[in-house]
Amino acid sequence: MDEILDVVSLVLILIGALLCLTAAIGLVRFRDVPSRLHAATKPQVLGMILICLAIALSLRSWPVVAFLVPIVLIQLATAPLSAHMVGRQAYRNGTIDRASLHVDELAGSSETPPAAGG
């Protein structure tokens, strides 16, 4: 049984590393901000979750699982939030090609809110 769990954890680490690699390549290769944000959040977070799952399977210890669960939860909470903030700022700076947007929900809110300090 230990050998099977070791092989499963090895496969999970390999898949997670490949997903993180594709995220890094996507950040370098994609041209516009929305595509880069997609590459920075989706495969990177999934790759990190798979690597954490592989670590938990490999070490087979409850303290390790208790340590990895908050890491995964914090990553799941912060990655979409940071991508949203970067995308919104790129929209305000004008670095997003507005003609390529299918729906422009921020068209009426291009000015900075009074409490934003700008």
Automatic annotation (TrEMBL):
- For this UniProt record, give its keywords in alphabetical order, as a comma-separated list: Membrane, Transmembrane, Transmembrane helix
Q: Name one Pfam family in it.
A: PhaG_MnhG_YufB
Q: Mind telling me which InterPro entries this protein's record contains?
A: PhaG_MnhG_YufB
Record keyword Endoplasmic reticulum present: no
Keyword presence, Transmembrane helix = yes
Give the stretches traversing the membrane: 6-28, 40-59, 65-83
Segment forming the signal sequence? none
What family is reported?
Belongs to the CPA3 antiporters (TC 2.A.63) subunit G family.
Recorded protein name is Monovalent cation/H(+) antiporter subunit G
Q: Which organism is it from?
A: Microbacterium alkaliflavum
